[in-house]
Amino acid sequence: TSPFIIAIDGPAAAGKGTLSRLIAEHYGFHHLDTGLTYRAVAKALLDAGLPLDDETVAEKMAIEMELAGLDRSVLAQHHIGEAASKIAVMPAVRRALVAAQRKFATKKPGTVLDGRDIGTVVCPDATIKLYVTASPEVRARRRYDEIVGGGGAAVFDEVFSDVKKRDERDMGRADSPLKPADDAHLLDTSEMSIDAAFRAACDLIDVAL
Ligand code: C5P
């Protein structure tokens, strides 16, 4: 029997991360936040003082990336996310990271993978696919509240324009652009609490498992 795979895609700050963690915990599945794999490669390049636009150098870092060492707390910074979305346009980087992600996806009894291209490219045969979105305004508001709530400083208009820029880069790239898979269930969380989004997701997943 093939393992259960729950694929969760969507734009930055749509609530995918929290939702994916809750779902993985609820079903007792392994969880991989694939954004961290791109962030880890970006951070390794930044730390080594290497350029972000050399595909051969970035590919080498991607091949060496270890899933076991991924930690959101050291990869969360805004400039790392920006750098990640730059190296994520490179096909050689994506090829290396997708291979590692596919291997993770076969873990038993099942897995939750979240990212941008899980349902379309990484796991096109996933048991169930969710595409989680919210309006750019709502996503910017959540990101802003998160930064300010954590004691940081932010200007809403800047956060809003960053969200829109990241969307453009992720949706506009040639290799594996962000878009819902044809068979994905759309979940717009603009007017939903995390709790309501979690319950809506479980209702969809329960039917598929
Ligand atoms: O989701 P997160 O903000 O951590 O992802 C950082 C960047 O990594 C995204 O903006 C996107 O460009 C890239 N990414 C990707 N494919 C994935 C996950 C993330 O291209 N599956």
**Share of helix among residues?**
55-70%
User: Which hetero ligands occur in this complex?
Assistant: cytidine-5'-monophosphate
Give a quick account of the main beta sheet: strands, pairing sense, barrel closure.
5 strands, parallel
Q: What integer value in Å does the Rg equal? A: 16 Å
The shape is globular
Number of helices: 10
Low-pLDDT runs of 5+ residues are: none
Order of helices and strands: EHEHHHHHEHEHHEH
Computed structural class? alpha/beta
End-to-end C-alpha gap? 13 Å
Task: Report the β-strand fraction as a percent range.
Answer: 5-15%
EC number: 2.7.4.25
Keywords: ATP-binding, Cytoplasm, Kinase, Nucleotide-binding, Transferase
Enzyme class: transferase
GO molecular function: kinase activity
Protein described:
It contains 10 helices and 5 strands. With 209 residues, it is of the alpha/beta class. The protein has a 5-stranded parallel sheet with strand order 2-3-1-4-5, with helices on both faces. Helix 2 crosses helix 5 and helix 3 runs parallel beside helix 6. The radius of gyration is 16 Å and the shape is globular. The relative contact order is 0.21. The model has no long low-confidence stretch (mean pLDDT 96). Cytidine-5'-monophosphate binds next to helix 2, helix 5 and helix 9.
